[in-house]
Amino acid sequence: MDSFGNTTPFASNALETKAELSRFLVDLLDPLAAHTSPGGARIHLGHTATHYDETAAQLEGFSRPIWGLASFLAGGGDYPGTKRWVDGFTNGCDPNHEEFWGNMRDKDQRMVECSAIGFSIAVARNKLWDPLTPEAKTNVENWLGGMNDKEMPNTNWLWFRVFANLGLSKAGSARFDAKRMKADLDHLDTFYIGDGWSRDGPEGVVQLDYYSSSFAIQFAQLAYSKIAAEDDPIRCEEYRNRARKFALDFVHYFDAEGRAIPFGRSLTYRFAMSSFWGALAFADVELPAPLTWGVVKGLQLRNIRYWAKQAGAYNPDGTLTIGYCYPNHNMTENYNSPGSPYWCCKSFVTLSLPETHPFWTAKEEPYPAVLLNTTKALKHPFHIATNLGGHFYILSSGQQCSYPVKQGPAKYGKLAYSSAFGYSVPVGSGTLEELGGDNTLALSDDGGETWKCRRDTREARIEGPAPGWLRSMWYPWKDVAVETWLVPPTEAAPLWHLRVHRIRTARELRSAEGAFAIYGQREDGRALEPVEGEAFGTMAEGGNARAASRAGVSGVVDVDGRGRKGTALRTDANSNLMVARAVLPTLLGEHAPGSEDIWLVTAVFGLPSIGDHKGAPEGWSKEWQKRPTLPQEIAALMKA
Fold first, then answer.
1. Domain boundaries in the chain?
2. Beta strands in 488-581 (DSSP E)
3. What is the pTM of this model?
4. Does domain 18-370 correspond to CATH entry 3.40.47.10?
């Protein structure tokens, strides 16, 4: 009965060819017809709210699927439902029509949706622009051009105005503002910090999440470099050069099964995370070794295949849910409308390519063998990426959102993020069960009534001999300072990483340090119970705790024996992004105030299941018996 309620309408699609990818897109577009307004300009998929108005939310539902539709049409596809979007352009931009989207104001959400519309005009003009009447074309031009004199956030949003003007340019519109577009591009280029990486904003912003890659900046640079190659050749070549460098870092955020490492905000965009790989093909980038078109094809298609099989990502009618691997409003942002997830349609950009393109002619290749069992320090995002022992994850210190964002500490402040286990978010403000404190050191100064987790990380840097370790500071209260070292795994203990914390406190504290949250059910669907050996279940003994299930094994050990107690905490439902029922091996401690440093040394174990195999490979307990070694430089600091 495992398959009952746990399948999708797309699971049988092999998603290996252009035709199969086209069919997946069509299967996503078709259900939208029942939710489309009579005039075609709005798509209403649900009743949850956003910080912006309902008209903008329904415009979002209309516009975001266009990323896929325009690519499909540009590549020679023919979709009978295209008329819905042509009608939508006509009526949504008509000030006298009841479905008018409304004129743009400063920092208006409508600006975001202009990027998909501009892209569609640029690449599929004959199918989406040419059928419009002269009056409708004028209305679309006026509506898009209306953003040129408006204030925009100083972020990746500026790319949305670039694409609005790019579409106007390709349509030959008098509303195209070349001066405005150049100024936006020149300013966006100031976000660049080297080695292919760009911040999501000006100096001082330290967000380098998926917006710096697939969601916005890298994708936009590559799409621009293809569409504007003749008009802006020098800049376009620079963007392709950046992509070549960036790709060699970004590949470490994907695992051999196609999953991307969940990190940061907007994760309800799902397989938009892999759209960078399709954009490389769209822009005809000359690939750097060890990347080949077969490797890139595999990275892109494996990710889409993974999402095509996630039953919780779809409503029964085939529309997308808000959430990650299942419907989950705890992890969303206040700008996630029911139409937001269709940003994933960016990953259909390869449908614009002919069958003769090397992306489609190449034989799909697995994850590059030369990158397996490696660890790499990524200096710009303050990440150390590793896949030793088959577990793909990053250690993280130094990022935070530059403005208030829901669940910010969980999205940017955790100590580790895994492609297999995901991360958790709080579902309440009281108990540890509500906290979702995986991969974090949570502190309480009120006896456990409330808990603080790292949000504002200071003085982050990578130290030590290659690949090094991450070192950073956190100040949860004015009289409490926490210094943390994150040490990646080694070949001697490949499934462990180390965390060292030095706490200086003038107040009494309780601590809770979590490992990876893991699927918390037995094979019969009941909750995990205490067991011995390698059977599915939990273990908590002294300063140790672990949990084993069909998802693999997660565990934590108090290395220096400072009196912390291990427990297998059953977190509240719907806190983890990937599994709705999770268990979290956790260390609990109590710490008195004083002038002396409090040192905590924690070893964290993670071994995910591979492919369709249920549970960790047999014999995993031998790896559990190993213990990582503290680097001499850190050990010396502890003795000083």
1. 18-370, 373-639
2. 496-505, 509-514, 518-519, 537-541, 544-549, 552-558, 565-570
3. 0.97
4. no
